[in-house]
Amino acid sequence: MPLDDIYMIVDALDEIPDLDGRNKACEILNELSQSSKAHILTTSRREHDITECMSEFNFIVDILIQNPEVDHDILLYVREQLKEDKKLKRWSAALHSEIEEALSGQADGM
After folding, report:
1. What DSSP element (H or E) covers 96?
2. Which of 25, 39, 76, 77 is most buried, by the most CB atoms less than 10 A from its CB?
3. Phi, psi angles (nearest 5°) of residue 41
4. CA–CA separation, 106 and 99 (whole Å)
5. Is pLDDT at 110 greater than 90 in this prediction?
6. Distance between CA atoms of 49 and 24, rounded to whole angstroms?
7. Is it the case that residue 85 has pLDDT exceeding 90?
8. Which tens digits make up the pLDDT trace of 22-79?
């Protein structure tokens, strides 16, 4: 009996802690991608080993979300949460600014 289409989402491939684990995951994904019935969505930060691995896939669409617009959206989201959340809005404006700066400044599009 033939398999139906397979849909797989692999989130945060870059968060696999060791290089061997990443390489193994890439090998498995590459093997799965050989099937015309496999539909794979993978998310990751742009890291050399992962970019290199993904370049071996039959078909890939690269969508870069690490950009200034995403960083600005993150800032707006954090600002809104600080303003609307019952507990958070009681904190001082100085603390709000520090939180905004820390979270949006280090988000790097994520």
Report:
1. helix 93-106
2. 25
3. -115, 120
4. 11
5. no
6. 12
7. yes
8. 999 999 988 888 877 888 888 888 888 888 888 877 666 777 777 777 888 889 999 9
DSSP letters spanning 1-55 = -----EEEEE--GGG-SSHHHHHHHHHHHHHHHTSTTEEEEE-----HHHHHHHT
**CA-to-CA distance for 46 and 78, rounded, in angstroms?**
24
Burial class of residue 13, CB neighbours in 10 A (0-12, 13-18, 19+): buried
13 is written with which tokens?
A: 């491939």
Structure tokens at 29: 């994904």
Do the Cβ atoms of 28 and 34 come closer than 8 Å? Answer: no
Query: Could you state, in order of their start, the residue ranges of all structural domains in the chain?
Result: 6-54, 68-106
* pLDDT score of 57: 77
